[in-house]
Amino acid sequence: MNQLSDQAVTxxxxxxxxxLNTRISIHDKYSVNRQGFGNWISEHxxxxxxxxxxxLGCGTGSMWKGKRxxxxxxxxxxxxxxxxxxxxxxxxxxxxxxxxxxxxxDIQDIxxxxxxxxxxxxxxxxxHVPDLPQGxxxxxxxxxxxxxxxxxxxxxxxxxxxxxxxxxxYGIESHVSSAFTLQNGKDILCPYFADVETDLYEDALAVxxxxxxxxxxxxxxxMSDLRKLPRETVRSVLAGHMADGVLxxxxxxxxxIAR
Length: 259
Prior knowledge:
This protein is an alpha/beta fold and about 260 residues long. It contains ten helices and nine strands. The chain has a single domain, classed as 3-Layer(aba) Sandwich (Rossmann fold), CATH 3.40.50.150.
């Protein structure tokens, strides 16, 4: 894909919360690790008292729901997204929380002065950035001297790759972005940060209703070839790989902590 088509796909996927909510719901319903990825991510945050924090690509804001204690550690918390529609959903999700500002921001052009934030967060979004080096330069610029950058992502051996393998007999390929993954993320971050830690989240899906997994598949931009198959075919293939009424789907997620 060229940069323009990449941006068009991202706008289609994240212009509103519908497709993202479909993807979140399957994790909520079937994840083996009941801690939850969002809870695991937030446990890594080490904000100083009165921290100034910027989140890029906040999505629906669901990762902040129920995190009042963490929110109150911040003297300034800005949740931002490239999509104005997604920000409206975040405001609704967090309508009971105070002290949060919401802004439409492009990571490639962050509208704040140098050394503005104790922490910058960019979870599950760096692989969408058309000019990632520019985005990382901007993150580094707005971080304070001892600031921390938190960025979660997926690996190259996770859900979409597994699902694609189930349909290899149909000539299906899963078009998964490798722009920023657990395998290459550290190398990408190292030119901009002196220290980069990696932590992995152990999990899988145990799916008991293939209709839910089919909905997930049809919400994904990277599964365009698979969506051309009749839904009944998709359901039949998924059901054929169930064992004792369960389809176990591997997940590969984690995060980088860069200083």
